[in-house]
# Entry
Amino acid sequence: MQSWKRTMWILWFGVLFCSSSYTMSVPFLPLFLYDLGVDKNSVNLWAGIVHSSAFLVGAVMAPLWGMLADKFGKRKMVIRAGLSLAIIYALIAFVQTPWQLVGVRMLHGFVGGFVPASMSIVAMIAPKEKLGWSLGMMQAGTMTGGILGPLFGGLLAEAFGMRRSFIVAAVIIFAAALAVIFWVKEDRSRETQANTKDKQPITYRMAFRNRTLIHMLLILVVFQLSLNMIQPLLSLHIADLKGGEKGAVLSAGLVLSLIGIAGIIASPIWGRLGERKGHYRILILCLLTAGTVVCVQYFVEALWLFAFVQFVFGLFMAGIVPIINTLMVQNTDEQFRGRSFGLTASANQFGSMLGPLLGGLLGLFLGIHSIFVATGVIMAGTGMIVWMKRRRERSMARS
# Structure
């Protein structure tokens, strides 16, 4: 096996373990709040605070970790994040009050960066003709962990209690960090050569003049915002489709698993298609189709049909983030690679923080069916804007 591919697969398992440890613990924190003495009337408020606190801190810290990755090495940032996250997950098992949990979640956002740093290593070592496929595979690894995590986390919590499941999550991310320590080597000679050729180092101020970079970050924020508008209300909608709350959690988990399975199947395929047909063309197709499919859910009243539509949505949604990452890599300098992935992480977290707030407000005043339409319109509208922008750029280039 080629050296770059071997490193990619090690990091693939690393992001799988990182995503698994995250989804083993974080989705169950609202239920954990009951163990901390929070009553049913205020648990939704506390759940929002617990989730948003990590996203807020993570969005601020991601560019800093990206800068340090470019300066000191991306491998060191992966190891730092892995070891730190292991400590954080272990700490969750010992918190006694809701405020302590908020504090630990803020630390969680502070020390993150495992996946962006891993992505930047793969972007550095992969051949140009394999870049789309490589980043698509890494996205598939993240989605695979997103499926396995809730499954094993739920089983462990049921069998041994939530606190012990958090310890297991800590062990898993610690194992991922050890794998990087022993088996991943980072060749920084290319970065050194790039820094030597460019006497003036690239700063954030200079990078923000890169219009493609700014556009990709804005698309990520809007995509994550629209995607997360519906997530807090999904289980409630499934309960309505089932005709009651009984079994709604299990049904919601199965539906989310279908989205993840679709992502695992489609992410590498979209990466290859982007290399052959053009990344912008695939990005526009995925945004337009995903938005249209989400709008269709306004008319869906049967649970089995809703699950099918969600699976189709997952197929097209899976192409958006890998294509954006590929375009980011192609339009940024190698010496800025770590910071560019730090910025994408920050954009993802800002969108993930704003989406549930906007979705909750719309759900309060308009109802959940209207949120499906709003989400679809935002995604499809973003695709239209990208299409019109590309069309205008081509017409200007011809004239």
The CA atoms of residues 208 and 214 lie 6 Å apart. The two ends are 47 Å apart (CA to CA).
